[in-house]
Specification:
Elements (H helix, E strand, L loop, with lengths): L8 E6 L4 H11 L4 E8 L10 E5 L7 H9 L4 E4 L10 H22 L3 E5 L28 H19 L4 E7 L1 E3 L4 H8 L16 E4 L4 E2 L1 E3 H13 L4 E5 L5 E2 H7 L3 E4 L2 H13 L7 H9 L6 H7 L7 H14 L15
Helix pairs in contact: 1-6, 2-3, 3-4
């Protein structure tokens, strides 16, 4: 990105206090080409990051649009990360934040005439695809998996951005499509989202998990959140458009999960595992819906060649190291100084 006289850039990050947001804010603040970062969130954090200030905004508020436009004024780029994962049993609530709130952000970018919008899409936006081979490119259909609200919402926003780019060709729009993102400081938040607030992290000790189910389709891609943040930073600064897949090697399967947990694999039918998850869901013993389990089994493996070639991006942490960081964080109750990432050890 070029600026008149080489002036430092001002970047706004929407959803700056969660798993991805805290890493993106830090990555931007460390770049000498970035003069200042404004982090927006529903609740002001106690987190202190160089060159960074904070403001509060709720994307579900009717007056959020004008407030966002004011915050975006004179910004060189807006990075949109805000996402609400729950309550998982109330898709209308998540739709209001994730879809309608995102559309407010997009409209405010256009109203403020901000030249760059970097949006957090996901592997979850992709239609079912191959689990082996070189991986699908960014041209793979983004229809999502209809049984999971997360996938429906990510896929819907892809269609919104298709029209948005047509209507606003002057705005450079980038869509980041990472695999599952993990870091130690976000483990407590992710435990609360997917397992519930009362799930004891100590139960993830290897000696307590002797078996890992080996299921058809259980192959997925992960990435350390800090590596994803570097891709966001590069997307802000480079003259690129369109979508970028992000993931680290290797692709994770049951055998590798078993190795992390010092467990052994056991072959099980998908229906048996889904039935157990459905029962836990109905009994409110689990927060993640059976539809999300189905999505994981159908999501394609992605090729990250475009990000490596056009962004010059290279992950520094393997997928297994990212998972190890997550497991360590769950066991210790790791967190950060923001409301979403507040740490808490249970068990």
């Amino acid at each position: 990105m070029e600026t008149a006289g080489g002036a430092p850039l001002r970047v706004v990050v929407v959803g700056a206090t969660g798993n991805v947001g805290t890493s993106v804010v830090r990555a931007l603040a460390e770049d000498p080409r970035i003069g200042s970062v404004l982090g927006l969130a529903r609740r002001r954090p106690a987190l202190e990051v160089p060159k960074t200030s904070w403001e509060t905004v709720d994307l579900t508020d009717d007056d959020a649009g004008p407030a966002l436009t004011r915050h975006f004024a004179d910004a060189a780029a807006v990075v949109h990360l805000a996402w609400r994962f729950g309550p998982t049993r109330d898709p209308l609530t998540t739709w209001r934040t994730n879809v309608l709130g995102s559309m407010r952000v997009f409209d405010a970018v256009a109203a403020a005439r901000t030249p760059v919008l970097v949006h957090a899409s996901s592997v979850g936006a992709y239609a079912p695809g191959p689990k082996s081979g070189p991986g699908v490119t960014e041209a793979w259909p983004t229809h999502g998996w209809p049984g999971a609200a997360y996938c429906r919402e990510k896929a819907y926003l892809e269609r919104v951005l298709d029209a948005y780019e047509y209507e606003h060709p002057e705005i450079r729009v980038v869509r980041m499509r990472p695999g599952f993102l993990f870091k130690e400081e976000a483990a407590s938040e992710q435990r609360r989202i997917f397992a519930g607030r009362l799930f004891p992290g100590a139960l993830l000790r290897p000696e307590l998990i002797p078996l890992v189910p080996d299921l058809d389709g259980l192959r997925f891609q992960t990435l350390h959140t800090d590596d994803a943040a570097q891709a966001y930073r590069l997307a802000v600064l480079a003259d690129v458009r369109g979508a970028f897949n992000l993931a680290a090697e290797p692709v994770v399967d049951a055998r590798q999960l078993a190795g992390l947990l010092d467990a052994r694999t056991v072959r099980l039918p998908d229906g048996a595992v889904r039935g157990a998850l459905s029962a836990a869901w109905r009994l409110r013993l689990a927060q993640a819906s059976p539809g999300l389990f189905d999505a994981v089994l159908h999501l394609p493996v992605m090729s990250t060649e475009r990000a490596r070639r056009e962004l010059g991006w290279q992950p520094t942490t393997s997928s297994l190291e990212a998972l190890e960081a997550f497991l360590r964080g769950v066991r210790t109750g790791a967190g950060d100084r923001t409301a979403p990432l507040a740490g808490r050890r249970i068990g």
